[in-house]
Design brief:
There is one protein chain. With about 300 residues, this protein is of the alpha/beta class. The protein has one domain (about 5-290): Rossmann fold, CATH 3.40.50.170. It has nine helices and twelve strands. It has helices at about 5-15, 35-40, 65-95, 115-125, 140, 165-170, 210-220, 220-230, 260-270; strands at about 25-30, 45-55, 105-110, 130, 150-155, 160, 180-185, 195-200, 240, 250, 280-285, 290. Strand 4 (about 130), helix 5 and strand 5 form a beta-alpha-beta unit. The longest helix is centred in the N-terminal third of the chain and has 29 residues, at about 65-95.
């Protein structure tokens, strides 16, 4: 894939400078405004070597009776429409610049763990694989990078794992658990060691959309600092570690967010029964690096 002159200069500055020694970072994530924003912004400050752009395709659904399908239909359609509208709103407000990422390849969500995906990632030869909005990765994928595979989870994983993890703390009044977790990927779901937690500024006027916008913007500097800390000599083998998850909290599935929950939460906000308290933004970092020593 061809690079524009700005990208070419940026990459050459990072790669040709012998004092830089930036780790090679590959991205993998779905094609939505938040992920595109994060990856695009980071590509200006890290040695980005490529991206797998995940195109979501329908998965296998459990067979239901006709009555069950009819009952579930309004909620499912409403979730889809609200989700699409929210992404459109986020895309407009983020003002994402139409920049190409190096060696970008589209891949279906059900092929992320396939042999072809493994080959694509191995060809990129990454030190770090940064994941945001991708299906659960199998071991043969998340063990490809030399240093680690890192996930960006919109939610505090010690309290809420899975999906809709910004909506649930609002609905349940657990405002201290509104934020994002950057963690290592292991064989669980959002259970890897925590590298950092980002908590956005909170105001009473916030909602799920404004919080996602704040988190997307606020994560750029902490992530850049994390990757800057991984500068290394090519002969060294770095090990990245963080804080064990400890409490696993709730695992939320998309279907758990029912239409009634969305409506009641919005009604409580509009009537003043649910008020998000004001709080400043903050970052908690837990990561450390060490060089592997061979006997």
């Amino acid at each position: 894939m061809k690079m524009n002159s700005k990208q070419s200069d940026q990459q050459s500055d990072l790669i040709d400078d012998p004092n830089c020694n930036q780790p090679r970072i590959a991205f993998i994530g779905s094609d939505d405004p938040v992920n595109n924003f994060i990856f695009s912004k980071l590509s200006h400050s890290v040695n980005q070597v490529g991206r797998l752009k995940v195109q979501w395709c329908p998965g296998k659904r459990k067979k239901k009776t006709l009555l069950k399908r009819l009952v579930d239909y309004p909620g499912r359609i409403t979730r889809q429409r609200l989700g699409k509208r929210r992404l459109q709103d986020i895309g407009t407000k983020l003002e994402l610049q139409p920049e190409k990422i190096l060696h970008e390849q589209s891949i279906a969500s059900n092929k992320v763990n396939s042999r072809s995906a493994v080959k694509l990632l191995k060809d990129l030869d990454p030190d770090i694989l940064l994941v945001c909005g991708a299906p659960i990765l199998k071991k043969r994928v998340f063990e490809i990078p030399r240093i680690a595979t890192i996930n960006i989870h919109f939610g505090i994983s010690s309290a809420y794992r899975g999906e809709n993890t910004l909506f649930w703390p609002i609905m349940e009044g657990q405002f201290e658990n509104i934020g994002a977790t950057v963690h290592l990927i292991d064989q669980g779901v959002d259970t890897g060691e925590i590298l950092l937690e980002y908590y956005p500024e909170l105001t009473p006027s916030d909602d799920e959309t404004t919080l996602e916008l704040k988190i997307a913007r606020g994560l750029i500097d902490p992530l850049t600092e994390l990757f800057q800390s991984l500068k290394q000599s090519q002969s060294n083998e770095l090990k990245l570690s963080g804080k064990p998850l400890g409490s696993t909290g709730k695992t939320i599935r998309n279907r758990d967010r029912r239409f009634l929950n969305t409506c009641l939460t919005e009604l409580r906000k509009r009537t003043g029964l649910l008020v998000i308290p004001s709080a400043p933004s903050r970052v908690q970092t837990y990561y450390s690096t060490n060089v592997a020593v061979h006997g």
